[in-house]
Amino acid sequence: MNKKYRIGTIYGFTGALIYAVLLYLRYTKFSTSPEAFGLFATGSYVAILIFFFFAARAKKMQMGGIATFREIVQSVLLTILITELGYTVFNLVYLHQVNPLFFDHFRENTRLRLIKQGIEKDTLDLKLSSFDNRKIK
Question: What share of the chain is helix, strand, coil (3-state, %, to 5)?
Answer without folding.
Answer: 80, 0, 20
